[in-house]
């Protein structure tokens, strides 16, 4: 993990990094409380399709998790996204920015996605290894937050990664038997997000994901609206979910301490 | 509304009352912040079947809504419950206390329930009128919280009561066309609770209630477990839901004020 930049704003230090994984450069960001030392919970924030490591919703979550809970947060550009996207992919992402409805995923793109998911799972493991080697992150509990493509990657990743202790998933459904089998292997506490009028991940397939998860402690939040219209107030629910299952890095000092 | 008792504990004043509605005595409880004056949001807490106005879950909610949000809260014994239950009904309620699974509702009981729901809706309207006439309650925004039988009563009540601005419903499904029609008339923000393995209100019927609600702002929380196993952490979600839609009675004074 080679750090390439560092800035601090309102108590949150943001460090850009590069990690080389199987011949590819994986650019990422690590957020930490300013001056952080010692181990703390680590949250892996996995962006969705046509997004990137510093898309506004990821950035806002990272900052609030760091400020409110004292966590470390990490985001990377997944294969084919952000700094790793082709000109054509960037143009498509730009064209769909601000759209309230997304086109269906065609079979060609689905096949490409499957190959990228397999690669991304390995990258996230390498990122987690590298992050936990830092003394200011350490081997505290790990959480996964990823919707849509972040769940396509998250389900195989979390199913095979015992360090992850809690996961927010959703906006993605059970599309095949293998995915259902992996979902059943997940036994850590999970929150699943479902958009009731989702044009990309149909409601019933997302309910099937919730049903399939092997977790005894799981909770589903469903809201009206299309794929990209998750209500902003759910961020607070995610914070409470992770605080409940991963704890907080530290409490503010007691008065007079 | 004749007050029959008053106690104050940890900043919460609890007043027992009787209200006479169409020839029957309706006993209830009003909770307020100690020394409350002036209008504030009012929450109507409607207990479920075989429960009563001061069942532990209602009492805990009332106290926390008063303490955390400064609300007024009201609960009554619904027809055939609490002080209005027969010896046989009390014995049945005692027998089922602590049960993790409830028996199905037979057709005879369903018919009795329908008659009681109609009566309860009128009683809640009378209770709301009387409460709003108190200067320490006033005509602030009103919320409804009621699961299971509290939704059987709540859907017709909220559909016909423009003073209600937000409702927590659930653990009850759309059982007939009339109920679905009333649900579609509800347009205020709503949260629906669904128990994934509900033996009383099957999952699909509760999802149908969520679907039927006419509210553009609605959210579903589903959790594994049977009818009576709603996770305790959802109380915080209800608090945030009402705070979002009804506001808070007052903020703590600014530092130095």
TrEMBL record, chains A, B:
Superkingdom of the source species: Bacteria
Name this polypeptide is given: Dienelactone hydrolase
One Pfam family this sequence matches: Abhydrolase_6
PANTHER family for this protein: DIENELACTONE HYDROLASE DOMAIN-CONTAINING PROTEIN-RELATED, POLYKETIDE TRANSFERASE AF380
One Gene Ontology molecular-function label: carboxylic ester hydrolase activity
Ranges for domain AB hydrolase-1: 43-250
Keyword Amino-acid biosynthesis: no
InterPro entries xref list: AB_hydrolase_1, AB_hydrolase_fold, FrsA_esterase
Alphabetical keyword list: Hydrolase
Protein family per UniProt: Belongs to the AB hydrolase superfamily. FUS2 hydrolase family.
